[in-house]
Write a structure and sequence with these properties.
This protein has 17 helices and no strands. It is an all-alpha fold. The chain has one domain: Growth Hormone, Chain: A. Helix 6 crosses helix 16, helix 14 packs antiparallel against helix 15 and helix 15 runs antiparallel to helix 16.
Length: 400
């Protein structure tokens, strides 16, 4: 990526800050699940952690984009890392995991509009696909590797004895990750606000958000891309828990090793994202929508797997298709959003609908768990959901 030295340094620091922050968020999820287990909490509370996390995105979606546009996005990233660090510290201090993880979600809700919204300020349009590939690789690997790191940290063999339990020990280590992410964010060169007046009339924020949403949904390319990413992240939110249950139940792995299985998914996503960045021009992004069909089929095929090695291979294939699909969609949505409205606002709209979809799917997953639906039935159902949603989008793309 050929960029001026200042822009290149800012982009590398942005990648590092994002990676450490997302790594800590998802390692904290496993630590919080461990704390819930120590409290003998009911099973629905595990997906409830993510519900609390995504709820902040939905409730604050109107404000997140305006905050990212009204202030220097680099400064917003620093503040957000501080909020997340506080949530982790309170969890270590004894706050209920649901409340603490909701605070982390509160910080994360403004993070995406700032980190993705700054890209068009740093890069020309023809570099956005490649930049998004790096951002997506960083974010998705951090998400999945964070689960694996969380699994290692809650392993009793690596416990810091003075902190009493493996989960509390994990929280202390994750606090260090948040601190390192904050230091990286502080080193990002200060940018200028893209819309200093974004918060000048708070009463009009909802109207502006609705207006930006309408612009994106009425645009053919933006609406297709947003539909794809919303379905992807909704199902991914549930699959994160399904994979953990699948690995512990069907593959008979302990939680620490089950969390490591998601590393295979991360490697697949990296391979798919790199391939998409090298081979797919922005104008051809929508041609990749059929990849979702393959993801649906492979998710249902997880029921045929009974060994960890075959499971890792299956997750790698799913990840590769996901990386091929997601990176161009995000780049397309950013390019269209930047031309239709302010960058922070467009990313906030994208996050609102992605996390609303994730919230709804997680609520369904939690309800099905509470009702006692079997794991095979859940896996088959979510695979069928991906398949049907992808088929509908393929048909829509063909008609557009």
């Amino acid at each position: 990526m050929r960029l001026p030295a200042t822009n290149r340094r800012a982009f590398v620091l942005l990648l590092l800050a994002q990676f450490l922050s997302a790594l800590a968020d998802n390692a904290l999820l496993i630590a919080a699940i461990g704390l819930l287990a120590e409290r003998a909490a009911p099973g629905w509370m595990a997906p409830g952690l993510r519900v609390c996390f995504y709820l902040a995105f939905v409730l604050l979606g109107v404000f997140a984009g305006a905050v990212a546009d009204a202030f220097a996005k680099s400064g917003v990233i620093v503040v957000i890392n501080g909020v997340k660090l506080a949530g982790c510290a309170l969890l270590l201090g004894g706050l209920h995991p649901l409340m603490a993880y909701a605070l982390v979600g509160l910080g994360a809700s403004a993070y995406a509009p700032a980190r993705y919204g700054i890209l068009p300020e740093l890069l020309p349009p023809d570099q956005l696909v490649l930049a998004n590939a790096w951002m997506e690789v960083s974010a998705v690997v951090a998400i999945l590797a964070g689960v694996a790191v969380g699994g290692l940290l809650v392993d009793p063999r690596y416990q810091i004895a003075l902190l009493g339990t493996p989960a509390r020990s994990a929280c202390a280590c994750i606090l260090v990750l948040y601190a390192l992410g904050s230091l990286a964010a502080m080193a990002i060169p200060r940018s200028s606000p893209s819309d200093p007046a974004a918060l000048a009339q708070p009463g009009q924020l909802a109207a502006r958000f609705v207006g930006a949403s309408g612009l994106l949904w009425r645009d053919r390319a933006a609406s297709q891309a947003m539909a794809v990413t919303s379905v992807f992240w909704a199902v991914a939110a549930a699959l994160q828990f399904l994979v953990l249950r699948w690995a512990t139940t069907i593959l008979a792995l302990p939680l620490s090793q089950a969390a490591l299985m998601q590393g295979a998914l991360a490697l697949g996503i990296v391979a798919g994202a790199v391939a998409a960045a090298r081979l797919v021009p922005l104008a051809r992004s929508l041609a990749l929508v059929p990849a979702g069909l393959g993801i649906g089929v492979l998710v249902m095929a997880m029921l045929l797997v009974s060994t960890p090695l075959a499971g890792a291979a299956m997750l790698s294939l799913i990840g590769a298709l996901a990386g091929v699909l997601l990176v161009p969609m995000n780049a397309l949505l950013q390019a269209r959003g930047n031309s239709l409205t302010h960058p922070g606002q467009s990313v906030a709209v994208q996050n609102f609908f992605e996390n609303l979809a994730a919230l709804l799917v997680l609520a369904v997953y939690g309800a099905l768990t509470l009702a006692g639906l079997s794991l095979p039935a859940m896996i088959a159902g979510f695979g069928a959901l991906i398949l049907c949603a992808s088929l509908a989008m393929v048909v829509r793309t063909g008609r557009a």
